[in-house]
Each structure stands twice: as C-alpha cells, then as structure tokens.
Design brief:
Blueprint (H helix, E strand, L loop, with lengths): L2 E6 L5 H11 L3 E3 L4 E3 L2 E5 L6 H11 L10 H15 L3 E5 L9 H18 L2 E7 L1 H6 L3 H6 E5 L7 H13 L11 H11 L3 H17 L7 H12 L1
Parallel strand pairs: 1-6, 1-7, 4-5, 5-6
Antiparallel strand pairs: 2-3
Helix pairs in contact: 2-3, 8-9, 9-10
C-alpha cells in the first residue's frame, strides 16, 4: 500500500487538512457484522516515541476502554484486533517529528512499529509533521524508500489562494458578503499570514469576530489590520 510523509512549516495547517479529510470520509456502521467501520483513523504521535504510549494513544482514538498500565503486549493485541475489525484503509499519524525527542533506540523502535503496522493493516500510512519529520525518518533506509515525501508549500497569490479565501467566506458566520477574493484583501492576508494556512484561518476568524462585534457583519481591511495589530501588541 502507498505510504506518504506530509510535511511543512509548523503552522502550515496540516491538522486542518487532516480534520477536513476525516470529515469527508466519515465512519460507518456495518449492521451485518455489527461493527463500526472507520475508513480513516488519525492519531498523534506521543511527545516521546514510546511504544506503550503510542498504542495507548491509538486505543484512545479508537474509543476503546483500556488499562493504560497494561503491558505493551496486551495493548498491542487489543489495538490490532480492533483495527482488523474496523478495516481502515488509511492510518494517519500526526506530529511524527516527535520521534526526534526520543533516544536513538526509541526512534528505531517507533519506526519499526510504524513499519509493522503498515504491513499488518495492509493500509496506507500517512505520516504528518514539520520539516523535522524528514530528518526523523532518514535514520531508517526502509522508511525513506517506503514513504514518499510531500511538502505542503506556503500559499502565493494565485487563483487557488483566492478560492481558499472564498471557501472561508462561505463558512464564516457573517450576514453580509465580504468579497475576500478581491485583490487588496488577498494581498493583505497573504502578507500578514506569510502564506501559512493556519495563520490565514486565525486572521480570518479573528476578523469575522470583530465584524460581528461592531455590527458590520462583513470583513473589511480595517478588521484584518486590527487582528494583525492585536497579535503583536
């Protein structure tokens, strides 16, 4: 199965991408088998790459009651049994750059765990993290060859970025149109966010809140400038 390493700047909006992908692939209930089918399972790599904490975090995401103090073998067996029942087609592990927080032995053990899951599940594994995630995988030649790196670039002025702003406008709780795709707004948001999706989201949500508070119900350049000013003062 294909495996992917998704990486980029720390505030590029990777977590938002994962959340959107999960919403587009909701869980289903298989009435015939009486089990929940989860096409996409996502979790975070623990702050330190400990196998015991990894399986405990995975079981938590699966909604499985378990004793966190149980042995590694027990947690692993329970997690594998549940994963086989849920038949995921993809496992997403976010914050994979946390691997670098462990010792060399811990990093190797965590990487072996990921390889094992990829083979055991026969599902696609997507690792997500900052650019340090690339460094974390380079210690294992098999991981480097198995995972295709894909860097999430910063936004630039383009039709795609204007479509992004228009998409934000459709979901913001404002009563009047803001025309966020107009040139002055595009250029300001792009400069203020430095092209980072997470910053774009923060700026627009902050501007929307200001527009609601002052009764304008529409984002203008002044609202965006206020958000930027408040962020640095």
């Amino acid at each position: 199965m294909p495996c992917l390493l998704l990486h980029g700047d720390s505030n590029i909006g990777k977590t938002q991408i994962i959340a959107k992908f999960r919403r587009e692939h909701p869980d289903e209930f298989d009435e015939r088998r009486g089990v929940e089918v989860r096409p996409i399972i996502s979790m975070q790599m623990p702050p330190t790459p400990d196998q015991h904490r990894f399986y405990s975090a995975l079981l938590f995401e699966l909604g499985a009651p378990h004793n966190a103090a149980a042995s590694l073998a027990v947690l692993e067996r329970l997690a594998r049994d549940l994963l086989r029942r849920m038949t995921p087609s993809m496992l997403i592990v976010d914050e994979v750059h946390h691997l670098l927080a462990g010792t060399y032995r811990e990093q190797r053990a965590a990487l072996n765990l990921l390889k094992f899951l990829a083979n055991d599940l026969r599902a696609s594994i997507v690792l997500v993290g900052t650019d340090d995630a690339v460094i974390a995988l380079q210690s294992d030649t098999q991981m480097v060859s198995r995972f295709t790196p894909f860097e999430i670039p910063r936004w630039r002025e383009s039709d795609a970025f204007r479509r992004l702003l228009s998409a934000f406008e459709r979901i913001l709780p404002l009563r009047r149109p803001s025309d966020l795709a107009r040139r002055e707004i595009v250029q300001y948001v792009l400069a203020a966010s430095e092209g980072l999706t997470g910053e774009v989201s923060r700026i627009l949500n902050g501007a929307a809140e200001l527009a609601i508070r002052d009764g304008n119900e529409s984002i203008n350049l002044h609202h965006l400038e206020q958000v930027t000013y408040l962020a640095v003062h």
